[in-house]
Design a protein that fits this description.
The chain is 73% helix and 0% strand. By secondary structure, the chain is mainly alpha-helical. The model has no long low-confidence stretch (mean pLDDT 90).
């Protein structure tokens, strides 16, 4: 019965379960970029936190969802989701640039986010290129 006593639990001994699955490199990088953004989001000036900041946060989540969805689909079905994630990433870069130009995001924070997002972009671009080549090869074999 003691094993179910939740009131006297030492929080220092509780550890999350180990990750059971391997996460895609592009997803790991997108998650890392989002976690950095989340730190910055909470200290944005109020003039942007509840407008452009919320919009950027939503776009980040949409991009990550698209990558997760694409991961579980067949190659033919993946392409639209990867393309959508690329479009969301490009939109993110523009909105972050606006935050930087309006001095709501300092140089150091803008550069740190930009570097991470550039890595995500290279991964998404490579993924899309591979998908396009695979689809072209598949179509040429059908002829």
């Amino acid at each position: 019965m003691n094993q179910f006593n939740f009131h006297n639990v030492d929080n220092d001994t509780i550890k999350p379960p180990p990750r059971q699955f391997k996460i895609l490199p592009v997803l790991e990088k997108a998650k890392s970029a989002y976690l950095l953004w989340y730190q910055y989001y909470s200290v944005l000036p109020k003039t942007h936190r509840y407008s452009l900041g919320e919009k950027i946060d939503k776009i980040f989540v949409d991009m990550i969802e698209a990558v997760i969805t694409a991961n579980f689909l067949s190659p033919k079905e993946k392409e639209p989701f990867v393309k959508f994630a690329i479009r969301k990433l490009d939109t993110l870069k523009i909105f972050l640039m606006i935050l930087w130009e309006t001095k709501s995001l300092n140089d150091k924070k803008y550069i740190a986010l930009s570097v991470k997002l550039d890595e995500v972009g290279r991964n998404l671009g490579g993924w899309r290129g591979k998908l396009m080549k695979d689809l072209e090869r598949e179509n040429s074999l059908k002829k």
